[in-house]
Amino acid sequence: MLRAEPPATAGKRRATKHGSGSGRGPLVKRLPSAPVLLGIAALAVSIGGVLTVNDVAPAADSDHSGITRAASALGGASGQGTVSARKDTVTRDSQRDAQSDAAGQQLKDAAEGLAAEHASAIKKLAGKAEGYSKVLAQDLWEYPLEPVILTARFGQYGLWSSYHTGLDFNGNTGDQIHAIANGEVISASYDGSYGNKTVVRLEDGTELWYCHQSAFMVSVGDRVTRGEVIGLVGATGHVTGSHLHVEVHPGGGDPVDPYTAMQQHGLF
Length: 268
Fold this sequence. Notes:
Blueprint: H1 25-30, H2 34-46, E1 67-70, E2 80-83, H3 92-139, E3 150-152, E4 167-170, E5 176-178, E6 183-190, E7 196-201, E8 207-216, E9 223-224, E10 229-233, E11 243-249, H4 258-264
Antiparallel strand pairs: 1-2, 3-4, 4-11, 5-10, 6-7, 6-9, 7-8, 8-10, 8-11
């Protein structure tokens, strides 16, 4: 029996419900969206093969050892890439180190050479100083009597005919008189107001007079050395008591102050 349908309202669409036996509804609901489908397609392409990637190394490091790395799926193809490890090479730093070592060795050699020259110069200087010290030692004088007690100085006036021409050392009769310096005995005799006098001439021509002795211990021609006993203290000649009168005559000439001369040779 036919049923009359009421007329549809204008502008509205009637929803039609399909039965569960229809073939399109469930299939459409299970399909992924378009972006998801594109991602799945790209992933399928990336795992579908192997891509060989040539790693271009810098010019200084062209040799590599095999290291595998994965190819990117975003490159449009897939595959397996090989990356080589770089070998050790000589760099500018190692060259600079070698140059620095060479320069350091040169400096060391130069320093050792200078040290050797310095040591040699010091040795020569020490030898000269030793020789000079020996010369000075030979030229040093010694006191004729000990202890040293002066009773009259050069240039004084009083008991003498003009002025005192020597240096008087206090001493008792019989005290030993020592040679002031090395020399040769050129006189050993009595000489008026000087009493018993011994004259010793030094190598430079200077004469040393030892006066008023009580006894001689050397003779003319004897070589005497500094400190050697050459006579004994006395009171012979023009004196008021026992003592030793010493005079210094450079080159055998006029007397000079014995005190100053002795200072020049390390005394007083």
